[in-house]
Amino acid sequence: MSPAHPPVSPIVAIKSKASLSKTADLNVKHVILGDILFGTWYPSFYPEELVGRELERLYNLCPNSDVRTLGRLIYTRDGYSIYEVDGEEHQLFSQNLSLFAKLFLDNKSVFFDVASFNYYLLVQDVPVNNPARPESRITGFFSKEKISWDNNNLACILVFPPWQRKGFGKILMGISYQLSKLEGRVGGPEKPLSELGRVGYARFWEARLAAAILKMRNKATVSLQEISDRCWMLPEDVITTLNDMAIVGSKPRSDGGVAVSKAKVRDWVLSNNVDLTPPIDEECFAAEYVDEFDAG
Fold first, then answer.
1. Where do runs of H (alpha helix) occur along 82-139?
2. Of 135, 190, 283, 292, catalytic
3. I need a surface site. Which of 11, 58, 158, 285 has the fewest CB within 10 A?
């Protein structure tokens, strides 16, 4: 990673979200990812000998590396892929990725102790000069502890600003819950969530729960445990989401659980115009990757 040597291709400047930090506090003002220039939101812990006290533009970002030589392809669909990168095997890349992510995250704290994490990169194939070998562009990622005693299936998540509000966050969340399913245990994101994280997860959880409940055949009501097991979600995340959706029955169940009316769920979906299309397709995971979990 270097603050010098800008790319030779034309740079497209885009308007990013207004910085959530005072401009004077930013040690890096702008970054260039591929051929796109955009502003940062927060300071990061780059060494002063690399960026100085204040840097206008940071070039040649590590996240723009060819991940096909770094990570393992575990999922691919519709022109985008997920690569798994071992933080212990590729420590420099993982540290640089974390430092870069901190420019857009207020509560990111793990930068150098990356060996205990895996990183899941959302990569788009962008045709450049050779359509047969498109350029791999990282548009976002999430990190996950290799061993989590709290059943966290995600530690940090970020879609880079130029690609936000395009549904990529839901893809990353969907991948994290599919990993929970492959591991055979319910899970959820590390808490507390940031403000943006709470909003993103609320929408994701609501659609996930509604889709799962409506697929349960021959049942007018379903229990909290049934929903948790079906969605691989922690019960506390399920109940919080159901209460936010206002679809929990008023009468408690004899087993102490809650009852959810499918009719209320249908009404909620229609009134909120929610798309229940799953963000990922389980069949698009690499077969050899899934087989490793089955063998374990």
1. 91-102
2. 190
3. 11
